[in-house]
Amino acid sequence: MKIAIVGAGAWGTALAMAARRAGCDVLIWAFEPEVADGIAQDNENRPYLPGVKLDPAIRATNDLGDAAAADIVLLAAPAQHLRRTVGPLAGQLAPSTPLVICSKGIEQKTLSLMSEAVSSLFAANPIMILSGPTFASDVAAGLPTAVTLAADDIDAAQRVADGLSSERFRPYSGNDVIGAQIGGAIKNVLAIACGIADGRGFGDNARAALITRGLAELTRLCVAKGGRAETMMGLSGMGDLVLTCTGTQSRNYSLGRAIGEGRTLADILDERNSVAEGVFTASAAVALAEQLAVDMPIATAVDAVLNREADIDDVIGALLARPLRAEAG
């Protein structure tokens, strides 16, 4: 099976290794020519996944058109750039070629889920979502990982899952495309909240409360958007949420922790070459929640701190002063 991966960040590179272990013929596209050259010549992606030796059989390119020959295309570009990145492939892909979205986020300008953004360009192609609890370095190292692969046609999802699976990388098929995306997008925002709480020294109890009440928030949004509540109990919901809110490898959690310790968002972003998607998703999630009449106080608090220059202590105080209510809902 020929697999093309669009996006050569840490996650796209890790997916290339996972697909290769599954026996696939793998091509990875990088926006930066030097990244493609480094993978091709040195079997390493030093800017985004340093220290990880890649399978020499993984090919790299800077020509997006090369991806059109693949049997399956995995989309791993940053969420806010995904539409623009894959646009040039429109008209080049066979309509039967599945597009597997591996990016997690909500478009800021349009409030579109990634499936909505991609299907607007590729109306005939099967659209699938790969999501779940994954740190790129663990996947690249071949450590055991389980993910959700969701598509409207669950049989088609199972066929792709079979093609990508190996002993250490296990995709579970599903058909809740919306739910798989809501879980993957909103957990990044909630991870920033948990990081802020830890940076403020609030302890383990506070983190557990944020995870639990955050799960209620993303479930409300999922259902309002047309997804299923039970999906939020699976790998692309609870699984991804727990990992991202507790693992020190999480870019979103670590960003939140630095903010909680008193650093500015601008300074944190200036020293990183990787994307913390929750920074961009926070405002989009809050706007989408308002559009759907969904109450999301934790996400709203994170957006206020990140994007609206709100005082962090005032925001925390307002959260803690919210009226008590029944836990359900």
Quick synopsis:
By secondary structure, the protein is of the alpha/beta class. It has 14 helices and eight strands. The protein has helices spanning 10-21, 33-42, 82-86, 114-119, 136-140, 154-164, 177-199, 203-225, 235-246, 251-260, 265-270, 277-291, 297-307, 312-320, and strands at residues 2-6, 25-29, 59-61, 72-75, 99-101, 127-131, 145-151, 169-174.
Polypeptide structure, described:
This protein starts with a strand and ends in a 9-residue tail after the last helix. β4, α3 (82-86) and β5 form a beta-alpha-beta unit. The protein folds into two domains: 2-175, Rossmann fold; 178-320, N-(1-d-carboxylethyl)-l-norvaline Dehydrogenase, domain 2 (Orthogonal Bundle), CATH 1.10.1040.10. By secondary structure, it is of the alpha/beta class. The protein contains 14 helices and eight strands. It is globular, with a radius of gyration of 19 Å.
Shape: globular
| CATH architecture group name of the largest domain | 3-Layer(aba) Sandwich
Looking at this structure, what is the CATH superfamily of the largest domain? NAD(P)-binding Rossmann-like Domain
Class by helix and strand content?
alpha/beta
Number of domains: 2
Question: What is CATH's topology name of the largest domain?
Answer: Rossmann fold
Strand order of the largest sheet: 3-2-1-4-5-6-7-8
Q: Class of the largest domain in CATH?
A: Alpha Beta
Strand and helix order = EHEHEEHEHEHEHEHHHHHHHH
Q: Share of helix among residues?
A: 40-55%
Number of β-strand runs:
8
Please count the helical segments. Answer: 14
Mean pLDDT: 96
Q: What percent of residues are in strands?
A: 5-15%
Main sheet: strands, sense, barrel: 8 strands, mixed
